[in-house]
């Protein structure tokens, strides 16, 4: 199946859009009318440009307010459409999108609409053009796809079919099941868009908040499955209106768009291949799978959490960060065999400080200062994990390998940092330690006050990049996103979203701010675009752990006494427990499923900090309600 995208999805000039689309490996485009109108060249020029880039032109769109009009207006509309046909012939575009009328004077007469669409299809047939009729979710009379299909059936013309747009169908809550009953050859075209759930006017929702598959909340897997069961074999095309995308760099957005189609195709391929109880449905799925070839990358191997966190440092910052780690209870566990790299350990946590000249870490340090430059993810099959990532368009990374050193597969993440896929053997995540000369571990048994594991990684992202990272973690690691939330910073709002694997061995928190003055925005500026702003460690007894760490000299943020005065008004808590939390600066959150105790260190070098957490029960959040207290405390102490 051809993969296509509407030019309206991207920022930039038409030339920039087409070049980015071709670079992202799309097969074809939809030419959005305004992009052509504002292009300084002819339709033939656009056709030649697309041909030179290896792109087909699948659709020209949109043509508005054609049907359901008076006879006089209909004659004027036929004159209008002939002009569009002239453009399409010069473009080499075989299909025209005609959306249901939104005009205030549109006539609610299905027979009239069908007759007018028949006449339009007759005109189109003379030019060898097909008409795709789309039900707009906010149109005057024809809002639902089943209504549009009724009119297309009544018109009964071979050059007229229904155009299905996932947003218009799913935003209204329509059940896509009936799509499977539409003959596949009468589905003229398919447009795909995801979206977060919004309680707002559907036109505004559509124009500003659509996103690519895998970035929103719509069930696009079921939607596309029904389309394929109908027998559709045409292009899979993206049509996304999004203010952020139209302001974001063109090429990264095009890459995200292509990755989103691959993500959706894989999910549907699994659905079509899945066994079921209904014989007829299984037969239909087998027939659909035989008609189309969907993207089927290597499956996600078992992932066993974070194998290590690597910091890029120089000599001075290495010394300072090593003191922080020592106070947090980490021990120096070994030196690299051939590089200026040191390993620190505590519990199941491995931290690497990399000060090697001429390395990737050094280039990362030169750009971002002391910062996290790489994460190691333990997996049963590192090669399969690597091949899956590269199938989704992630660049491989090949580092300098010394004698007798382990070669660990790696890719570049969206911010340019590295993700290593570390082979785990017999439940161990530490095969990479073959590269290190390890010190004696006889005194390394875990104590009740130790930090045990990495709970989550929190990232502060540049504006417009939260959706891209959400899709990255879903496609590459199989993470599932939680709901987006707004955090109140003293200088603006921060949008936060958690993404975690089903077993919660990997958790990431993605923060982004549209303001330039929030804590997140300032951290991104300080890090020059690097993303990780804090690492969260879990423990079994946070009170004992924090007491020990304070005695070690760890500096935690000072929380306002007013926070603890207010806490009993929000939760049923024992006064002694609240007093104990206040004495240690521990924050608290709870849901019906469990509790979350946590505390934050001061910021290191104005760039990142650490969090200590204790989860009780099945609490699955990240203490978002306490973010304002944390941000205010960091703001006050960093001034």
Main sheet characteristics = 9 strands, mixed
- The residue ranges in which pLDDT falls below 50 over 5 or more consecutive positions are none
- CATH level-4 homologous superfamily of the largest domain: Divalent-metal-dependent TIM barrel enzymes
Tell me, briefly, the overall form. Answer: elongated
C-alpha termini separation: 56 Å
Mean pLDDT: 93
Pathway: Aromatic compound metabolism; 3,4-dihydroxybenzoate biosynthesis
Catalytic activity: 3-dehydroshikimate = 3,4-dihydroxybenzoate + H2O
Organism: Thauera propionica
Cofactor: a divalent metal cation
Features:
3-dehydroshikimate dehydratase activity; 2,3-Dihydroxybiphenyl 1,2-Dioxygenase, domain 1; TIM Barrel; 24% strand; alpha/beta; elongated; metal-binding; single chain; 639 residues
């Amino acid at each position: 199946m051809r993969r296509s995208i509407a030019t309206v999805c991207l920022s930039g000039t038409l030339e920039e859009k087409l070049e980015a689309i071709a670079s992202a490996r799309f097969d074809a485009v939809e030419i959005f009318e305004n992009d052509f109108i504002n292009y300084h060249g002819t339709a033939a020029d656009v056709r030649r440009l697309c041909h030179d880039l290896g792109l087909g032109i699948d659709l020209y769109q949109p043509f508005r307010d054609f049907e359901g009009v008076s006879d006089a207006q209909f004659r004027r509309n036929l004159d209008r459409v002939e002009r569009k046909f002239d453009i399409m012939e010069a473009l080499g575009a075989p299909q025209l999108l005609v959306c249901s009328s939104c005009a205030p004077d549109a006539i609610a007469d299905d027979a009239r609409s069908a007759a007018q669409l028949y006449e339009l299809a007759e005109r189109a047939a003379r030019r060898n053009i097909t008409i795709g009729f789309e039900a707009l979710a906010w149109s005057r009379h024809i809002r639902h796809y089943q209504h549009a299909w009724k009119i297309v059936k009544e018109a009964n013309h071979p050059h007229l079919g229904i155009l299905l747009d996932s947003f218009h169908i799913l935003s209204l809550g329509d059940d896509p099941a009936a799509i499977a009953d539409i003959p596949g050859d009468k589905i003229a075209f398919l447009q795909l868009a995801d979206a977060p759930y919004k309680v707002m006017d559907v036109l505004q929702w559509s124009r500003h908040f659509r996103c690519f598959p895998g970035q929103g909340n719509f069930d696009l897997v079921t939607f596309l499955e029904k389309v394929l069961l109908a027998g559709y074999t045409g292009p899979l095309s993206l049509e996304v209106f999004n203010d952020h995308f139209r302001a974001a760099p063109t090429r990264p957005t095009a890459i995200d768009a292509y990755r989103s189609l691959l993500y959706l195709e894989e999910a549907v391929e699994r659905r079509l291949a899945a066994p079921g109880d209904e014989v007829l449905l299984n037969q239909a799925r087998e027939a659909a799978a035989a008609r189309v070839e969907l993207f089927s990358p290597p499956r996600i191997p078992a992932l066993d959490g974070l194998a290590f966190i690597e910091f890029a440092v120089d000599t001075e910052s290495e010394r300072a960060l090593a003191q922080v780690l020592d106070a947090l209870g980490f021990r120096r566990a070994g030196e690299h065999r051939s590089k200026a790299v040191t390993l620190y350990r505590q519990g199941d946590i491995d931290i690497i400080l990399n000060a090697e000249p001429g390395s990737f870490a050094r280039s990362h340090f030169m750009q971002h200062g002391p910062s996290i430059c790489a994460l190691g993810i333990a997996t049963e099959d590192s090669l399969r994990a690597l091949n899956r990532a590269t199938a989704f368009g992630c660049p491989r990374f090949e580092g300098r390998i010394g004698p007798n050193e382990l070669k660990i597969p790696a890719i570049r993440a969206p911010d340019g940092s590295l993700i290593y896929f570390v082979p785990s053997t017999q439940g161990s995540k530490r095969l990479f330690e073959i590269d290190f000369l390890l010190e004696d571990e006889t005194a390394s048994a875990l104590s009740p006050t130790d930090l045990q594991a990495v709970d989550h990684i929190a990232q502060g992202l540049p504006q417009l990049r939260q959706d891209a990272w959400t899709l990255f973690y879903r496609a590459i690691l199989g993470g599932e996103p939680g709901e987006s939330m707004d955090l109140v910073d003293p200088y603006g709002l921060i949008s936060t979203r958690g993404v975690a694997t089903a077993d919660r061995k990997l958790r990431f928190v993605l923060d982004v701010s549209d303001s330039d003055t929030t804590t997140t925005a300032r951290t991104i500026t300080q890090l020059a675009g690097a993303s990780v702003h804090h690492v969260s460690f879990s423990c079994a007894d946070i009170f004992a752990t924090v007491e020990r760490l304070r005695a070690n000299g760890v500096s935690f943020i000072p929380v306002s006494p007013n926070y603890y005065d207010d806490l009993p008004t929000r939760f049923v808590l024992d006064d002694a427990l609240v007093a104990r939390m206040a004495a240690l600066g521990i924050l608290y959150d709870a849901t019906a499923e469990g509790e979350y105790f946590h505390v934050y260190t001061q910021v290191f070098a104005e760039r990142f900090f650490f969090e200590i957490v204790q989860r009780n029960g099945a609490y699955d959040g990240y203490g978002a309600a306490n973010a304002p207290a944390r941000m205010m405390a960091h703001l006050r102490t960093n001034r």
